[in-house]
Amino acid sequence: MTSSALPFTHSIRIYWEDTDAGGIVFYANYLKFMERGRTEWLRSLGIEQQRLRDEVGGMFVVSEANIKYLQPARLDDELVVTAQLQSAGRASMTIAQQVLLKPKQPTDTPVLLCEGTIRIGWVDAASMRPARIPPTLIQTIS
């Protein structure tokens, strides 16, 4: 199953805490930005991860990340993080994500800084063993 819908977007501002001594975003922080984007995407669909754990007994965990860095983000930049379902199976999903520099003018094109795919698997929260994603959850996300 794949999605052709427009990607979800989430804005993030770069602060001192996100940068290294040179004012460049530390590479690992892009994974944090993508995590926030995926979490807000799920929240926009009415899926709250803590509630899933408490009420359904399962949770998503990252099982694979493939990231390509193209250009650096800097202090005070405003970024747009996207999340879009690429594929879904019985126990995992692959999410395509991008981190873009938000244009200063509405007519300018966003600049792609980083892109990748994140594979998330569904596990039983108590045992942390792989499990099938509840069908209603797949329907909501698709």
Rg on CA atoms, Å: 16 Å
**Sheet/helix structural class:** alpha+beta
Number of distinct helices:
3
Mean pLDDT: 94
Which series of helices and strands comes N to C?
A: EHHEEEEH
Low-confidence stretches: none
- Give the overall shape, derived from the CA principal axes: elongated
Please give the largest β-sheet: 5 strands, antiparallel
The N- and C-terminal alpha carbons lie at a distance of 8 Å
Beta-sheet strand percentage?
A: 35-45%
Placed side by side, the strands forming the largest sheet appear as: 1-3-4-5-2
DSSP E strands, number: 5
Fraction of helical residues: 10-25%
Helix and strand layout, with pairings?
Elements: E1 8-13, H1 29-44, H2 49-56, E2 58-69, E3 78-88, E4 92-101, E5 111-124, H3 135-141
Antiparallel strand pairs: 1-3, 2-5, 3-4, 4-5
Structure characterization notes:
It is a single chain. This protein is of the alpha+beta class and 142 residues long. 22% of the residues lie in helices and 37% in strands. The protein has three helices and five strands, in the order βααββββα. A five-stranded antiparallel beta sheet has the order 1-3-4-5-2, with helices on one face. Strand 3 (78-88) and strand 4 (92-101) form a beta hairpin. The protein is elongated and about 45 Å long. The termini are close together.
